[in-house]
Design a protein that fits this description.
It catalyses: L-threonyl-[protein] + ATP = O-phospho-L-threonyl-[protein] + ADP + H(+); L-seryl-[protein] + ATP = O-phospho-L-seryl-[protein] + ADP + H(+); L-tyrosyl-[protein] + ATP = O-phospho-L-tyrosyl-[protein] + ADP + H(+). The chain has helices at about 10-15, 20-40, 75-80, 90-95; strands spanning about 5-10, 45, 55, 60-65, 70. It has about 100 residues and is of the alpha+beta class. The protein has one domain: Transferase(Phosphotransferase), domain 1. The strands form two sheets. Strands 1-3-4 form a three-stranded antiparallel sheet. Strands 2-5 form a two-stranded antiparallel ribbon. The longest helix has 20 residues, at about 20-40.
């Protein structure tokens, strides 16, 4: 992965005290495209959060930290494993539901 010199989205929000709505929309669209690609390859990240979204000086964003990622064929994701960061976890996962 290329160098993402700005840092994480979490760093940016903390440093700037927030970000403008148009940039939020652009970031969200980019992250959703990335997730669509990941899911299209039958993978789940399992820990999407601002700390794992990296930005560069051109405004590009990349999803990072695939340490908890698994393939959808993997037995780990077919069981009721509980991994990720609780504050950013989908309610259905907290309730013990499957990955959507």
């Amino acid at each position: 992965m290329e160098y993402m010199g700005v840092g994480s989205l979490q760093d940016v929000v903390l440093k700037c005290g927030g970000i403008a709505e148009p940039l939020v929309a652009r970031i969200a669209a980019s992250v959703l495209r990335g997730l669509q690609h990941i899911h299209g390859n039958r993978m789940v990240h399992r820990d999407i959060k601002p700390h794992n979204l990296l930005l560069n000086h051109q405004g590009d964003i990349k999803i990072s930290d695939f340490g908890l990622a698994r393939t959808l064929n993997d037995n780990v994701t077919q069981t009721k494993t509980f991994v990720g960061t609780l504050l950013y976890m989908a309610p259905e996962r907290i309730g013990g539901g499957d990955y959507a």
